[in-house]
Amino acid sequence: MADSATAQEFDILVLGGGSGGYAAALRAVQLGFTVGLVEKGKLGGTCLHNGCIPTKALLHSAELADHARDSAKYGVNVTLDSIDMNAVKAYKDGIVAGKFKGLSGLIKMKGITVIEGEGKLTGKDTVEVNGTTYTGKNIILATGSYSKTLPGLEIGGKVITSDEALEMTELPKKAVILGGGVIGVEFASVWKSFGVDVTIVEGLPSLVPNEDPSIIKVLERSFKKRGIKSNTGVFFEKVEQNDDGVVVTLADGKTFDGDLLLVAVGRGASTSGLGFEETGLTVDRGFVITDERCHTGVGNIYAVGDIVPGVQLAHRGFQQGIFVAEEIAGNNPAIVEDINIPKVTFCEPEIASVGLNQPQAEEKFGKENVETAEYNLAGNGKSSILGTSGIIKMVRQKDGPIVGMHMIGGRIGEQIGEAQLIVSWEAYPEDVAALIHAHPTQNEALGEAAMALAGRPLHG
């Protein structure tokens, strides 16, 4: 391998060291390629430093706060004295630091050359970093995403994004959250558990609008029960900051006030000023357009992860990174289809889904060719022990395979593994019903839903 201090030519040059970029780099060296990995911040990207990992750490602290509040009904007498945000932040930062150290060590051990600085695409096979040009026979763009805002909505002061929310050492008493998607409901859930008065404002008709209607109904009911307020179906107009906090005005003139406004309206692709258009790539609203094999149509340039239109999930970028490394090696890997990528929203109750929801299935196969079954977690022993409720919903093509699974309930995200196998392997409910699900687990509920969908419900 070339000396990393002078090496400027690589088989594969990866721009961005987040989930997509580092996965591509690791798989590429495994396949025998020389790899240069360009990263301007820290290896691990959004997911590790200000996305999945830190938010899930906060959600775990939030779960413990809820357990302390409710412990008496389980015969354990503890009291919740206070939330120490400095200690919560230290715990979160410790988790991130540990994972970062592990990843950095792994990248170094595998012989990947890390090039520190902001890279810019300068040609079909060149990237410039801090005035130095590096060459790659193949280039993988994995520059990730940033917290987006709305036109005319300035971030600053008491108007923050998830980036600032993760660094908070003091809790607001009252907060308004703009956006009822994944990020919005996760922060609403955390803050409510920590004792904050929370209101979610979502312009679309419901919270988590991409989920199955049955799941949305359960979430909205659960949030209401928890005291999380929401206003849906009316778009945001403006926000004003004053000494007391913020006043948010909607298009219908309704106002909401709080100590701060968290803007959670999704994530934009980090592609501007990186030389993509100049090199001939097709960029639409910031996103890099590729074919189904992640190729940009220019030279040997590929793009993966959040900069490619589709679901913005760390594990999608990760899988696409591996895919592209194998594609370059000529291994003809199987395409990563967005619809079968598992999704988990880690609010309380958790949401987990994979495949088509009921409206999508009905649109694809026709209403009369779709069958669904819902199993209520009220009938599941482990869920009752945990004190959670919710549903497992299975969607099948009539007389055909299961095409979607949608779940909501405490800790239910852990069940997404089997759900993903069922949908991706096109299992029939009759197949799944014949499998044994251990008792007493929440996993049994998947077996029960399959039995119901196979026309032989046991506990229904």
Structure characterization notes:
The chain is an alpha/beta fold and 460 residues long. The chain folds into 3 domains: 8-147 and 269-338, 3-Layer(bba) Sandwich (FAD/NAD(P)-binding domain); 159-265, FAD/NAD(P)-binding domain, CATH 3.50.50; 349-454, FAD/NAD-linked reductase, C-terminal dimerisation domain (Enolase-like, domain 1). The chain is built from 13 helices and 24 strands. It has helices spanning 19-30, 45-50, 52-70, 85-109, 162-166, 182-193, 213-226, 314-328, 358-365, 381-386, 416-424, 429-433, 444-453, and strands spanning 9-15, 35-39, 113-116, 119-121, 126-129, 132-141, 145-147, 159-160, 174-178, 197-202, 229-232, 236-242, 245-250, 255-258, 260-263, 267-269, 283-284, 287-288, 301-303, 343-345, 350-355, 370-376, 391-397, 402-409. The strands form 6 sheets. Strands 1, 2, 3, 4, 5, 6 and 19 form a 7-stranded mixed β-sheet that branches. The protein has a 5-stranded parallel β-sheet with strand order 8-15-9-10-11. α3 (52-70) packs antiparallel against α4 (85-109). The protein is globular. Mean pLDDT is 95; it is low at 1-5.
